[in-house]
Amino acid sequence: MFIHQIPSIVPNLLPKLIWSRPVDEKSNAVYFTFDDGPTPEITNFVLDCLTQFEAKATFFCIGKNVVNNPEIVKSILAEGHQVGNHTMNHANAWKYSKEDYWQNYLDCEEVFRKMNIKSVGFRPPYGRVNSFIYREISIDTPIFMWSFLTGDYNQDLSTQAIIKAGIRHIKPGSILVFHDSVKAFPRLKVVLPALLDYCLQQNLKPEIL
């Protein structure tokens, strides 16, 4: 069984990480985020979809993809969205030394600096966190996790199962994770417009983080 929503005990144990956004009785904001891009055609599809629903989003970009697709990043920012760091090469924190992981993070930051991009924060690839990320990188930048993981990259999940789970879990303050990647696209192209439409019907407004 795929776990779309992190058990509540986890955010309580790791309070330095951002799992959702605060809400009040008047809040209707939700937060659509996209990992692993930018990817030609796929990120453009996402941008068109967001425009159609008058939605804003945050893109946690891999540094090497930013280098290879600078015009797409410019489009992301020009359309009022945000960009965050997702390491230079989609680094797995459980397989890298502290020094190598930190350098991978810094290399992505340097790409952003050269392009005059202000990063909203960091999301560790695979959602994998270690003590270095939690105790040290969290001092340098906000670290964004999620309330709802779509699982759009998972070929074993049907689009209808993802949409159904989204309808069950999305609420004000939720941070949603999608992927603007080749692997996720067969599900993303169905799931994204459906969940944007659901938010519209429920008067939930996708905003930048």
Would you write up a description of this structure?
Pfam families: Polysacc_deac_1. Its EC number is 3.-.-.-. It is an enzyme of class 3 (hydrolase). By secondary structure, the chain is an alpha/beta fold. It has one domain: TIM Barrel (Alpha-Beta Barrel). It has 8 helices and 7 strands, in the order αβαβααβαβαβαβαβ. It has helices spanning 9-13, 42-52, 63-68, 70-78, 98-114, 131-140, 159-169, 185-201; strands at 29-35, 57-61, 82-85, 119-122, 148-149, 175-179, 205-206. Strands 1, 2, 3, 4, 5, 6 and 7 form a 7-stranded parallel β-sheet that branches. α2 (42-52) runs parallel beside α8 (185-201) and α7 packs parallel to α8 (185-201). The longest helix has 17 residues, at 98-114. It starts with 8 loop residues before the first helix and ends with a strand. The mean pLDDT is 96.
Query: What is the CATH topology?
Result: TIM Barrel
Radius of gyration: 16 Å
The number of distinct structural domains comes to 1
The level 1 CATH classification is: Alpha Beta
Largest sheet: 7 strands, parallel
